[in-house]
Every structure is written in C-alpha cells, then in structure tokens.
Amino acid sequence: MRWFVRSAIVAVAVLTACSDNPVGRSFAAEKQLVEALGGVVLGRFDLVFPVRVERIEHGEGGIRFEHKGTPHQYGGVEGAAVRAVFVEHRRGRGVLVLRSTPS
Q1: How many distinct structural domains can be found in the chain?
Q2: N or C: which end of the chain has fewer CB within 10 A?
Q3: Residue 49 belongs to a domain
Q4: DSSP H helices in the chain
Q5: Mean pLDDT of the 90-98 span
Q6: pLDDT reading at 13 higher than 70
Q7: Does residue 53 lie within any of the structural domains?
C-alpha cells in the first residue's frame, strides 16, 4: 500500500510540474516567463524578478485592467489575443502585458 501511495504522489508531482498552466509557477527572468507564455511584450509594470504568476486575464479585442489604482488599456489586433499577467515578487506585485502572434 505504501508503494502505491508514494507512486501516486510522484505521479501527481510530475504531472503538475509539466503543466502548461503558468499560474502558481515561478520564473527567474522575463525571458523565461515570455517563453512559457509565448507572444510579444506590450507593457511592463513594476516587474522585479523572480516572480510568481498569480493570474492571467485574456482579451480578444484588447484588455483593460488596473494596476496600483491606475487604469490601463491595450487594443487588440485581429486574430491575436492580449493578456495581462499578474505577478507577485519580493517588492510587491507587477503586470506583464503580452499579445499573442496573429493567426
């Protein structure tokens, strides 16, 4: 029975580590984060690496969000999604805005 429980724990850990979902994962540098998410960087707000991804908001026709009380808006490009990636780091919180490559 112990062997089965240990095997199940290892399997869950491996599957979780290989997940494509970056939420909850940490990244040491912007390059790693952008490579994991794909796309082109449109904006950066208060990024201090390493960071941990808290959540990602998506918008097809553009995106609106607020960071530190200031509203931000990015327009979309036909066939490309815009994402705001909200992160946490040692000095607080930041946002990376990305546009996917148009299809």
Answers
A1: 1
A2: N
A3: yes
A4: 2-17, 30-37
A5: 96
A6: no
A7: yes
**Tokens 């815009």 correspond to what residue?**
82
Residue 24 pLDDT grade (very low, low, confident, very high; cuts 50, 70, 90): very high
- pLDDT, position 60: 81
Contact indicator for 96, 38 with CB cutoff of 8 Å: no
Omega of the bond leading into 50 within 30 degrees of 0 (cis)? yes
> How many Å apart are CA 33 and CA 50, to the nearest integer?
10
Q: Give domain status of residue 15, yes or no.
A: no
What pairs with residue 59 in β-bridges?
82
What tokens does 81 get? 């999604």
Q: What is the pLDDT of residues 31-83, one digit of tens each?
A: 999 999 999 999 999 999 999 999 999 988 889 999 999 999 998 878 888 99
Question: Which domain range does residue 47 map to?
Answer: 23-99
